[in-house]
Description:
By secondary structure, the chain is an alpha+beta fold. The protein contains nine helices and five strands; from the N terminus they run αββαααβββααααα.
Amino acid sequence: MEIHEGPAWMLEGFVSPDNIKAVDATTVECTLDTPYAAFLSFLPWWYIVNPAVVEANRGDDLGRSYLLENATGSGPYMLERFEAGNSCVLKRNEDYWKGFPYDNDRMGGVIYRLIRESSAQRATLLKGEADLVTGLGVEERQAVSDNDDITISTIPSLTSFGIKMNTQQGITADLNIRKALAYAYNYVSSLQILNGEGKLQTSPFTEAIKGYVTIDDMPRRDIDEAKEHLAKTD
């Protein structure tokens, strides 16, 4: 919060640094300045690090340079090697405080590789050079769907696609122009681009977000309605 980076935007305005305290060796207490419905949902983003290690490597930038290449957490795996923009190699933490749930769980580590192109991800998966890939494009996912050695998993997304309009300047400052565009848009085409692997929203939020509420009059393509709003513009 002091450097205004990372998850600071989730915290500022709802909890101050003075109200985040280490109660004991395994407990952190946050006292909110104001009620915050998203608090529990955001907790996994707030990484708790070892203060002794961070303070010892604080430097002039509050430890930022050190943390770019070092880990100070307490999870089941430890940082073995890190190459910015390329890969991250983790090794098993035998002293993990929570222990490992299965006696036969002997996975020694994890190798994360940054592969930006969806086609390259697919090729790596098909060659057996990767056990898991995320973010395959629709076409790439369909290309591997017939492979019996590969399991595809999809879940409702927390994110959505939308077109942003300037409500303060230009022609879209006119509410009726925005409504005309909303009713003129071909929503079905978006689903076709995704090969049917998408869903039209019925709320400003996606269904995977807690507090989701359906709105009955979400715009759908209606050219007559679009013309009515267009006729009301200046």
